[in-house]
Design goal:
There is one protein chain. About 30% of the residues lie in helices and about 30% in strands. A hairpin with a 4-residue loop joins β3 (about 110-115) and β4 (about 120-125). The chain has one helix spanning about 15-70; strands at about 70-75, 95-100, 110-115, 120-125, 135, 140-150, 165-175, 175-190. Strands 1-2-3-4-5 form a 5-stranded antiparallel beta sheet, covered by helices on one side. The chain has a domain at about 40-90 and about 135-190.
């Protein structure tokens, strides 16, 4: 008597071909999902690197604007840095001013912010004769930095409250990021002490 297989309706399994097709489809879906996940991780890493660099730029710019706002006797352009001077028509690449609480005429009480075209960075001097140090990160390349100063005549010799406009353009990036992001920032600071 030949042996017969008894198959009941609820006990039938998958064939080998069905298993191979289902494993193949699962593999394709997982490869596509993994590629999308890796792309998201890379985009997140780039965004964090750019955010870190932009935070450095914001801190440097905020510190400069706060110091400018609290200062007085602004000098922009050529000449003696301790003599107040406007540069509204022809902007300067540096600004010098008497820091808050400083003594007029003391070169150590003046702050100088300047643009170094060689390193493409914003620099600061804590005194007219002090060495300059960079306040922006190396990942920030400033292509153009201009200072506009109006109303800085000594002793309130004009009717304008001293106002400084800072215009900055450049790019940011990181060693870990292949793309670079451009920025264009304008900040305005008005002398806090009334110049009447």
């Amino acid at each position: 008597m030949p042996l017969q297989r008894a198959h009941t309706r609820g006990q039938r399994g998958f064939t080998l071909v069905e298993m191979i097709v289902s494993v193949g489809l699962f593999t394709v879906v997982m490869v596509i999902s993994l590629a999308a996940l890796l792309s998201l991780v890379d985009a997140n890493r780039k965004a964090r690197a750019i955010e870190s660099v932009m935070n450095n730029l914001n801190i440097a710019l905020d510190g400069m604007v706060r110091n400018v706002r609290m200062g007085s006797d602004y000098h922009c352009g050529g000449g003696t840095l301790m003599d107040p001077q406007d540069c509204a028509g022809t902007p300067g690449t540096s600004i010098a001013f008497l820091r808050f609480g400083g003594t007029e005429g003391n070169p150590d009480d003046y702050l100088v912010y300047s643009y170094d075209a060689g390193t493409k960075r914003l620099e600061r001097q804590q005194g007219i004769n002090a060495a300059a140090f960079a306040v922006t990160a190396p990942e920030i390349e400033i292509d153009d930095l201009r200072f506009y100063v109006v109303g800085s005549q000594p002793g309130g010799g004009d009717t304008d409250q001293p106002k400084i406009v800072i215009v900055m353009k450049g790019t940011v990036g990181s060693d870990r990021v292949r793309t670079r992001t451009t920025f264009s920032i304008q900040a305005t600071a008005v002398q806090r002490v009334l110049d009447i």
